[in-house]
Amino acid sequence: MQLIPLRIEARPDPVGSRPTSAPVTGAVTRARLGSLEVTVELTRFGLDWSVANRDDAPIQVRSVALVMGLVDLAPPVRMFRHGYQSWSPAAVGVLGVDADPSRSADFEFLQAVHHADQRRARDGELRSEWVTLLADDRSGRGPGAASVLVGFDGGDDHDGTFRLRDDGAGTGEGVELTVEAFLGGATLAPGERRTLHSVVVDEDPGRGAADKLTAWAASVGAAHGARTGAPYQVGWCSWYQYFHDVTEDDLRANLALAADWPFGLFQLDDGYQRAIGDWQATNARFPSGLDGLAGAIAAEGMEPGLWLAPFLVAPDSEVATRHPGWIARHTVDGTDGGPLRTWWEPSWGGGEDGFMYGLDTTHPEVLAHLESTAAALVEAGFTYLKLDFTFSPSVDGAYHDPSRTPAQRVRAGFDAIRRGAGEDAFLLGCGVPLANVVGVVDGNRIGPDVAPAWALAPADEIVRGYLDIQPSTQRAYVNTVTRSFLHRSLWLNDPDCLMLRADDTDLGPEAVRTWSDTVAISGGMALVSDDLALLSSADRHRLDEVIVIGRQADAEASDGRPARCDDLLDHALPTRFGAAGLELTVEPGPGTSHREPS
């Protein structure tokens, strides 16, 4: 299987604008596509490219793309579909068998959360974000299987999407991969030229899929100053025991028991705040305020950690009511439709049945607010900040600076928080478009929320096509395995919390062990999220084992040898995961597995 460049495409905005295309004519092609000029230079390792506005008026650009044909192909084609943000699935799909979930949902409010382009995919199309792997029926299986990697070398200036289609009725003729630089409607000024992120193509038959992904991640991390030097993280988090209903008494009760546990971090999650957006004001359940809470944690010798969703504001929050001009706007056919709603969480209230507004991170005053908020939280003692729901600035809307791409809007918000928090604070991204934040976060969630249950049934699906984004320990397992190559090359992977308890849970003992082993072998962060009063000496022993294995796996990742999934392209649910001299094999059933020396 080989990739052959075919044509260049450009898609302006708004909705309904027709794409234009031109053939690739040589090693360097300069194509005039309407008002745009796209230059593509094919290199030994992939391509370099740029887009320029050659008109005398501004133009909005949705995307620029290079379409490549797959030749010498034995269908079916398997594609590693790497998800857009922390919670988005990362697993293999089969062209002609699987479908993009937007084809079932056609629900842009949710699609905006899980795809760079929130609009519905074309029929029969599979897509991946930032990086992908392709294999066909001749590629073989297992660690030595042949594959082709295609990946963008960055993502802070714009997102990158891969779209795989077959117009040849399954014959192997007409299979195309569209390599798309997604600008999301950003406005290019007259005469403006933008360099796009380069694209890497790795067709080396001597390297397996895991090795190709590891090499790609290491290259991206080195090029973009990835923050990978933080120590291995062990701690406690309030979320999966108490959820939104956490109280100060809950926190202090666990803090009183934490001295008997090997925690370096103690993190308060969602539930303390007066309103979404008003992060320095606690509600009545937390009478000591943030300074008192951080002081109590620090007095026990642990680093205080705090959750916030920095780019969301509740409609009735002080921030939203005092600064309505800070909120991005929803537009319909160019007409202002009011504040841009970017998330919905009924338990948050907020005055509009749980709908939250998105801050405009292209507005200088918003960036100053984010910077000062982060500085104040660190000053209060919280030197670990978990930044959640941070996809918000990527949602289609009207922003103060229309020249910024969705990726730049996300990155601007994170950069402001980093400026305020300082270089020594630990920033954890969550619900974040992963490509946008290399070099600014220290850790990143790389899977959906775990849950006190192993798997979901089809009947549990809330939005058609998107079952795999819902909290479940099985889906967290899949993403931890398939995204293991990111650890210590781009940041510290956060697989999400351990749940060790035997009570108040639907996780059976086998599932608890499987998830614990997965977290350990990943080398990623190890945070417990149980009421410590429910845990036994056997649970403590399990955590100690996670830490021993995890530290070894983490050290291997620091040496460029992250945990491996050698059947990544073989199954929708990968079964083999190895590091630290161990291999975990996960079997069919409710979290059943066995672990043995590799």
User: Please, what is the average pLDDT?
Assistant: 96
Number of helices: 12
Runs in which pLDDT lies below 50 for 5 or more consecutive residues are none
DSSP strand tally? 33
Q: Whole-number radius of gyration?
A: 23 Å
Q: Could you give the distance between the termini?
A: 31 Å
Features:
598 residues; Beta-galactosidase, Chain A, domain 5; single chain; nine-stranded antiparallel sheet; alpha+beta
Describe the structure.
With 598 residues, this protein is α+β, with helices and mostly antiparallel strands. It has a domain at 2-223: Beta-galactosidase, Chain A, domain 5 (Distorted Sandwich). The protein is 22% helix and 29% strand. It has 12 helices and 33 strands. Helix 8 packs parallel to helix 9 (406-421), helix 10 (473-482) runs parallel beside helix 11 and helix 11 packs parallel to helix 12. The mean pLDDT is 96.
Produce the secondary structure layout:
Blueprint: E1 2-12, E2 20-23, E3 28-33, E4 36-42, E5 46-53, E6 59-71, E7 78-81, E8 91-94, H1 102-105, H2 108-114, E9 126-129, E10 131-135, E11 148-152, E12 159-166, E13 175-188, E14 193-195, E15 199-202, H3 209-223, E16 234-237, H4 239-242, H5 248-257, E17 265-268, E18 273-275, E19 278-282, H6 289-299, E20 303-308, E21 312-313, H7 318-322, E22 329-332, E23 335-339, E24 341-344, E25 355-358, H8 364-379, E26 384-387, H9 406-421, E27 426-429, E28 443-445, H10 473-482, E29 492-494, H11 509-522, E30 526-528, H12 537-558, E31 576-579, E32 582-586, E33 593-597
Parallel strand pairs: 16-17, 16-30, 17-20, 20-26, 26-27, 27-28, 28-29
Antiparallel strand pairs: 1-2, 1-6, 3-4, 4-5, 5-14, 5-15, 6-13, 7-8, 7-10, 9-12, 10-11, 11-15, 12-13, 18-19, 21-25, 22-23, 24-25, 31-32, 32-33
